[in-house]
Specification:
The chain is α/β, with parallel strands linked by helices. It has a single domain, classed as P-loop containing nucleotide triphosphate hydrolases (Rossmann fold). The chain contains 9 helices and 5 strands; from the N terminus they run βαβααααβαβααβα. The chain is globular and about 45 Å long. Bound molecules: adenosine monophosphate.
Length: 199
């Protein structure tokens, strides 16, 4: 399988790039943010629990998010996909460990972690712009956006070190033409999936 992680702060372009990469490599796209918003839209208990954290710009507790991903590998296989692209997951070291176990149980592993690098001011501007059309309340409020970036710095950024130690981290400049960034990501995937492929 080819299992990709799109890593980076809110507004760094993970969702946009996931759309391109999933088509090209035939991957199941799993966005934990989308899964959570779906739970909220369906009015589930999980959704109601997650909403308070999301509205405050905080991370949803690990066990809630991890619990949603149990069937991911089986789902991608039954759909005939070549692997999975994780977008917005893992966001804590506990999630990274849970993912490592979940994939190992299915005889597979993370192929590469693609980290999109974008500076802070650009992130805020992009999220506010997205908020004009996304319908997401967490994209419209400057304090919530700052809180999300702060959560990223304190809880998510350390996950990069986890993957650096495993020689799986690639940093890609996330500013410039979308197609050029996609190409740089594809080149990294090709280089790493030949190195770490599990068939
Ligand atoms: P996103 O769509 O990836 O920007 O996620 C929106 C919000 O959903 C985040 O600000 C978090 O509150 C929550 N969320 C999404 N993915 C995760 C995750 N892996 N761990 C914890 N919270 C998450």
């Amino acid at each position: 399988m080819i299992n990709l992680i799109l890593f980076g702060p809110p507004g760094s372009g993970k969702g946009t790039q996931a759309e391109h990469l999933k088509e090209h490599f035939q991957l199941l796209h799993i966005s934990t943010g989308d899964l959570l918003r779906n739970e909220i839209a369906n009015g589930t208990k999980l959704g109601m629990e997650a909403k308070q954290f999301m509205d405050a710009g905080q991370l949803v507790p690990d066990e809630v998010v991890i619990g949603m991903l149990g069937g991911a590998v089986d789902q991608s296989r039954s759909m005939g996909k070549r692997g999975i692209i994780f977008d917005g997951f893992p966001r804590t070291t506990a999630q990274a460990l849970a993912l490592e176990h979940l994939l190992a149980d299915k005889g597979t592993a993370v192929s590469v972690v693609l980290s999109l690098v974008v500076e802070e001011e650009e992130l805020t501007q992009r999220i506010l712009k997205r908020g004009l059309t996304s319908g997401r309340s967490d994209d419209n409020d400057i304090d919530t956006i700052r809180r999300r970036v702060q959560e990223y710095r304190t809880k998510t950024e350390p996950v990069a070190g986890f993957y650096k130690d495993r020689d799986l981290l690639v940093e890609i400049e996330g500013v410039g033409a979308i197609e050029q960034i996609t190409q740089a990501l594809m080149n990294a995937v090709n280089a790493y999936s030949s190195k770490h492929s599990d068939g």
